[in-house]
Amino acid sequence: VQLVESGGGLVQPGGSLRLSCLASGFPFSSYVMRWYRQPPGKERELVAGISMAGRNINYADSVKGRFTISRDNAKNTVFLQMNSLKPEDTAVYYCYAVRGTLGAWGQGTLVTVSS
Known about the structure:
- By secondary structure, the chain is mainly beta.
- Helix content is 0%, strand content 54%.
- The strands form two sheets. Strands 2, 4, 5, 6, 9, 10 and 11 form a seven-stranded mixed beta sheet that branches. The chain has a four-stranded antiparallel beta sheet with strand order 1-3-8-7, with no helix packed on it.
- It is globular and about 40 Å long.
- It starts with a strand and ends with a strand.
- The mean pLDDT is 97.
């Protein structure tokens, strides 16, 4: 099982980034996918989740209206489009695959929002 995030970087407040998470080694379309983040010195928190077929989506209140999660099961990839970024969005972002009691984490990608 492997999850590889990409797309992080430094962006100014108000800017946008698109994170990607490429999965391999498991049946991607059979897993719920989530994005978590861990700000510096804080606990890891759930950002967004998407069901196996993409019909059910949920967001943390702090990102509603700014972030969009999506998935492409043909490409084994989940995305997180982040708009109107704020300094408080600065964190390491992780993707997570889950099915029942099975779960796997990516290595994370750093997003820094600063002027």
